TrEMBL record:
Gene3D superfamilies: Aldolase class I, Quinolinate phosphoribosyl transferase, N-terminal domain
Annotated family: Belongs to the NadC/ModD family.
Protein name, UniProt field: Probable nicotinate-nucleotide pyrophosphorylase [carboxylating]
InterPro entries membership: Aldolase_TIM, NadC, NadC/ModD, Nicotinate_pribotase-like_C, Quinolinate_PRibosylTase_N_sf, Quinolinate_PRibosylTrfase_C, Quinolinate_PRibosylTrfase_N
Keywords for the protein's UniProt record, in alphabetical order: Glycosyltransferase, Pyridine nucleotide biosynthesis, Transferase
Length: 285
């Protein structure tokens, strides 16, 4: 995995630490830690999954104290089993215990996304379909959530509204319900490097769009496998085909077998379950 630069991650982690420390700092650790007391701890998986977010965890500790040593044993993208040590964290007790919750919050959440993504990727193995996330991300966390999808073997859809043109049902309504007009207006505005995708939810709408031309990709929304198969045949390689709408690990294999290029899965980022990871005390350092 190519890591995201700390420049992008630090503001998120810093905000998390400031929120957690409040005005008085870590009262519990301050009361119990001896002056200069050092700890050796480990981030340990409690469940099977895929690792993502170690840079966020590292920053949660090193922003508390730059002297903390963070040694990665299973880097982002690694598959882990219960009991596997992901990283060892050694340093002053206040820094480790003060940064613990923020580190685990980011790490568990991103590992959960990577793990869920890997499950869908496994489900469609043997087909040409790629698994993509969407813009259904938590505000402020899009870059790291989409990074976690990549760690799980998935791919990213557009990051922002200015990445590409995606004409959805409300945009078609805005254009008077005329697919051809919507495509023509989008093509007239788009730069030469800007792709245009059109959402369709019926085969008739797809046929209109194909006659109008101008789309680089079609978002085939909430279609049945039979409809998807027919849609892929209609497009016949002239554009990218993307299936979306309630795709699960159980339904993904049948959908991928229709020949679509992309499976678009929004819940990978907006309702995923965190992976259970703990910070275990190993010894006084």
């Amino acid at each position: 995995m190519t890591p995201l630069p700390d420049l992008m991650l630090e503001p998120l982690v810093r905000a998390g630490l400031l929120e957690d420390l409040g005005c008085g700092g870590d009262l519990t650790t301050d009361a119990l830690a001896l002056p200069g007391q050092m700890l050796r701890t480990a981030l340990v998986a409690r469940q099977p999954g895929v690792v993502a977010g170690l840079a966020m965890a590292r920053l949660a500790f090193t922003l508390m104290d730059p002297s903390v040593r963070f040694e990665v044993e299973r880097p982002d993208g690694s598959v882990v089993a219960p009991g596997d040590r992901i990283a060892r964290v050694t340093g002053p007790a206040p820094a480790i215990l003060g940064g613990e919750r923020v580190a685990l919050n980011f790490l568990s959440h991103l590992c959960g996304i990577a793990t869920a993504t890997a499950g869908i990727v496994r489900a469609v193995a043997g087909t040409k379909a790629r698994v993509c996330c969407t813009r259904k991300t938590l505000p402020g966390m899009r870059a790291i959530q989409k990074y976690a999808v990549r760690a799980g073997g998935g791919a990213n859809h557009r990051f922002r509204l200015d990445d590409a043109i995606l004409i959805k049902d409300n945009h078609i309504a805005l254009a008077g319900g005329d697919v051809a007009h919507a495509l023509a207006a989008a093509r007239a505005r788009a730069g030469h490097l800007v792709s245009i995708e059109l959402e369709v939810d019926t085969l008739d709408q797809l046929a209109q769009a194909l006659r109008a031309e101008g789309a680089d990709a079609f978002l085939l929304d909430n279609m049945t496998p039979d409809q998807l198969r027919e849609a892929v045949a209609m497009v016949n390689g002239r554009a990218v085909t993307e299936a979306s709408g309630g795709i699960t690990p159980d339904s993904a294999p049948e959908i991928a077998a229709t020949g679509v290029d992309i499976l678009s899965v929004g819940w990978l980022t907006h309702t995923v379950r965190a992976l259970d990871i703990g910070l275990d005390y190993e010894a006084a350092a």
